[in-house]
């Protein structure tokens, strides 16, 4: 570069000196001086032009002009273009990051040093009931006024989260459900803060269910255990004759049988929850399932009441269902045993199978028992939910039967339908999807 500047200068000097020499004025030094002034003037003019363009809008920079200023302008132009491209790329990446945070199921809010909202994603906006654009630069503590949240935000101790009721709506929740939010603050870049929010409604519900379940199981086990312990004590301390001993032992047997049934039902439930869904390739004849239901039903009815029940078994269409045979048998027998257990002796229990016009198959158990009030029906499949506690216990119920039936139905894509009228009776039906029902193959004689 200095070489090129020097070359230009020398060329101007020579040009000036040459011009003066041609005119024969004989003052070579004056010519050279004039050349230098000319060169300086030209140089200053071009520098000024470039400066003016840069001051206004660098986009008007001339491309590839002559000389040093031309190259300078070209290089600045290139540099600016590269910078612009880098800025655009950085902007694109920022937008991608923001889009990723937008897509997060968790809420994210960024606060500046004063606690004003700098940015928040849509999830946080809907959970806090704020507007992601309108409320920018607002103090979050003014918008979310939950005292626990305000105190947490002001405490600057963020070692753990704070749990509050969401002032807005959580994802996929109706207003009727309170949404529980876990909010955790993470300070960054000095005094800036990032808030992460998490909808923990389902988690809290699951935790409450788990607690209830453990309490229920403990209660169910404790009752027969207490009775059993009482009998053991009696046998140890009282001189009993053989008959009395037998009576006590048989009562003890009943209690241990009750505990065994409960443990079996619990194991069945946990197996159902933990195992893979039943295949669709194993087919079982409805007749075979009915035969076992009939055996068990008649036995149970005879044991429960001296006069028994009027039981009927009707298969409208010879069919097969696909699924796990033991599960299907268990669900069908469960519904039948409920009908028998809750219908007083002499009552009627009708078991039927039919194929609906759309190809679905319906297994139904209809009884003339006490019926069930409408408010209980949606809760019947909850674990340990019973209407008539003493009747359930007397007849060997665990409170888990319908929970098991519902599980099995779900695993087979079937629907459990319950219809009942108090004082008239109930109808429990399992409706299997058409894909799991087919006409029974005729067996070779
Ligand atoms: P349980 O072992 O107590 O019978 P289930 O889960 O099978 O438990 O049933 C839940 C409750 O539903 C029962 O306690 C009973 O009150 C009610 N119930 C079930 N089936 C019938 C029925 N056929 N008629 C009347 N009530 C029924």
Salient structural properties:
12 helices, binds adenosine-5'-diphosphate, 5-stranded antiparallel sheet, single chain, Beta-Lactamase, Helix Hairpins, 5-stranded mixed sheet, 445 residues, alpha+beta
SS-based structural class? alpha+beta
Number of structural domains: 4
Per CATH, which architecture of the largest domain? Answer: 2-Layer Sandwich
Mean pLDDT across residues: 90
Kindly state the percentage of residues in helix.
40-55%
Ligands (ions, cofactors included): adenosine-5'-diphosphate
Number of helices: 12
Order of helices and strands: HHHEEHHHEEEHHEHEEHEEHHEEE
Largest sheet entry: 5 strands, antiparallel
CATH superfamily of the largest domain: Histidine kinase-like ATPase, C-terminal domain
Q: Could you name the CATH topology of the largest domain?
A: Heat Shock Protein 90
Low-confidence stretches: none
User: At the first level of CATH, what is the class of the largest domain?
Assistant: Alpha Beta
Shape: elongated
What would you note in describing this structure?
This protein is of the alpha+beta class. It folds into 4 domains: 2-97, no CATH class; 104-199, 2-Layer Sandwich (Beta-Lactamase), CATH 3.30.450; 207-275, Orthogonal Bundle (Helix Hairpins), CATH 1.10.287; 277-445, 2-Layer Sandwich (Heat Shock Protein 90), CATH 3.30.565.10. Helices cover 52% and strands 17% of the residues. The chain contains 12 helices and 13 strands. A 5-stranded antiparallel beta sheet has the order 2-1-5-4-3, with helices on both faces. Strands 7-9-10-12-11 form a 5-stranded mixed beta sheet. The longest helix has 37 residues, at 67-103. The structure holds adenosine-5'-diphosphate. Adenosine-5'-diphosphate binds at residues 338-339, 342, 367, 369-370, 372, 380, 385-388, 392, 397-403, 426.
């Amino acid at each position: 570069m200095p070489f090129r500047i020097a070359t230009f200068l020398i060329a101007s000097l020579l040009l000036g000196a040459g011009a003066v020499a041609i005119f024969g004025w004989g003052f070579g030094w004056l010519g050279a001086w004039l050349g230098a002034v000319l060169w300086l003037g030209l140089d200053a003019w071009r520098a000024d032009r470039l400066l003016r363009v840069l001051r206004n809008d660098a986009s008007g920079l001339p491309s590839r002009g002559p000389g040093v200023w031309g190259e300078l302008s070209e290089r600045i132009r290139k540099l600016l273009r590269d910078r612009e491209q880098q800025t655009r790329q950085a902007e694109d990446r920022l937008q991608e990051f923001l889009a990723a945070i937008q897509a997060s199921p968790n809420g994210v809010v960024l606060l500046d040093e004063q606690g004003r909202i700098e940015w928040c994603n849509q999830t946080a906006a809907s959970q806090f009931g704020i507007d992601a654009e309108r409320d920018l630069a607002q103090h979050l503590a003014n918008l979310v006024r939950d005292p626990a949240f305000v105190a947490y935000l002001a405490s600057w101790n963020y070692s753990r989260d704070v749990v509050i009721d969401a002032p807005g709506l959580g994802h996929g929740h109706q207003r009727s459900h309170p949404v529980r939010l876990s909010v955790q603050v993470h300070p960054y870049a000095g005094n800036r803060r990032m808030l992460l929010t998490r909808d923990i409604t389902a988690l809290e519900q699951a935790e409450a269910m788990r607690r209830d379940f453990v309490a229920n199981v403990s209660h169910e086990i404790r009752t027969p255990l207490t009775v059993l312990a009482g009998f053991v004590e009696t046998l140890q301390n009282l001189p009993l004759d053989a008959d009395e001993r037998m009576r006590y032992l048989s009562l003890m047997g009943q209690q241990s049988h009750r505990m065994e049934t409960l443990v079996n039902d619990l194991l069945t439930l946990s197996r159902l929850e933990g195992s893979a869904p039943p295949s669709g390739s194993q087919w079982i004849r409805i007749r075979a399932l009915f035969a076992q239901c009939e055996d068990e039903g008649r036995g149970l009815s005879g044991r429960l009441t001296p006069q028994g029940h009027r039981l009927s078994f009707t298969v409208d269409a010879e069919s097969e269902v696909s699924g796990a045979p033991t599960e299907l048998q268990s669900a069908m027998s469960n519904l039948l045993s409920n009908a028998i257990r809750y219908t007083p002796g002499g009552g009627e229990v009708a078991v039927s199978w039919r194929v609906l016009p759309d190809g679905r198959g319906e297994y139904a158990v209809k009884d003339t028992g006490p019926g069930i009030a409408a408010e209980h029906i949606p809760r019947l499949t909850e674990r340990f939910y019973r209407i008539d506690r003493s009747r359930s216990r007397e007849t060997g119920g665990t409170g888990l039967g319908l929970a098991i039936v519902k599980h099995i139905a779900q695993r087979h894509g079937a629907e459990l339908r319950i219809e009942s009228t108090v004082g008239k009776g109930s109808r429990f039906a399992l409706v299997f999807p058409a894909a799991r029902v087919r006409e029974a193959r005729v067996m070779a004689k």
